[in-house]
Amino acid sequence: MSLDLIMGIQTLLRQCLCRYKAAKLLGIEYLSTKLNINSIKVVMESNLPVKDLSRMLTDRDSGDFIAKPFAVYFIAFEINDNFLITIGIRSDGKINEHYRFDKNDFLPF
Length: 109
Hints:
Elements: H1 3-14, H2 19-34, E1 40-51, E2 70-79, E3 83-90, E4 95-102
Antiparallel strand pairs: 1-2, 2-3, 3-4
Helix pairs in contact: 1-2
């Protein structure tokens, strides 16, 4: 993936538009550098807002998306019908892989 495309995706993450989609794209790009992907499915997604700016900026309601620009997105992917991989993606684009399981293993832990 080109640097321009990665920078474009990171710019999307910093904006208020489509953060989940941008986080998923970053996650897929990250995983594609680690694995040969034939199929991919999102099996879980969640986010954790780190800072609520509505307390400092009174023009922002705490329910507004722009009130929480700093967040971590947690996504679990199923890759090639047998790997479960969980990753965390910060709103600045930093990615951490948390767990990787092979569903075909008798004991995944």
